[in-house]
């Protein structure tokens, strides 16, 4: 690797927002053409910045969660301690404290340095084009390819999300081999809300990254319970996460002041498969939950 990939990458202008929203073929071509360059640039960025960058690891997570999860990996029969940290806040929607709010400043500082890197990043244009968001998974064009971040991202999915999801939603077992993720950022005048939709995932973990002093108003997430016809509006607190099946209809209300930053992580099966509607929801043995699939990652990306 020669040490000028970073400068080269910085000199390349992103396609226009309009072209990205239109999903113009030239946009796909753009990311394809520069794939290796951008990946090398993130490597180089990490090396250049290594004295400034915080190590991303599980010390950023809530201690009770980290301890309970560590224990469950050692002895799956003790995973009730993890379950006790999950609260059902709407039908099929569970809340947990994921990050330690006191450590979020470090993670956010890392992400600020990512923006300052000026390497082209592809914003998530699944539902809307969220300007200050990034694709996180290596299957995605223009993803955040810094090796340290990638190791942390994989740890969040493999060590934490998948076994917890299997505990709550046993029918996802086997429909959880593949990963997907992006970050989103809301502020009142640009990207402020998301209309009702379902996710193309088997399960979604949506984690808030707001610092304790970063208050916002509005921006509740509405979950629609089709069985009862009721709507449950839930507001994120710093470092909390909500986990739900992808097929739960949800929407984000407009943010009226402040900002909100979240990581949205998805699991689904090979080639994007999700469990059939009538999938049996019978519990699986704890020892099966605390495992990591060995299937190769495919390249299917829903958006
Ligand atoms: O506003 C949120 O946190 C929900 C985002 C969401 O539903 C999505 O990105 O699919
Ligand atoms: Fe969603």
From TrEMBL:
Gene3D superfamilies recorded: q2cbj1_9rhob like domain
Keywords: Dioxygenase, Iron, Metal-binding, Oxidoreductase, Signal, Vitamin C
Known cofactor(s): L-ascorbate
Domain of life: Bacteria
SMART domains: P4Hc
Domain Fe2OG dioxygenase: 176-269
Keyword Lipid biosynthesis: no
Keyword Signal attached: yes
This protein's name: Fe2OG dioxygenase domain-containing protein
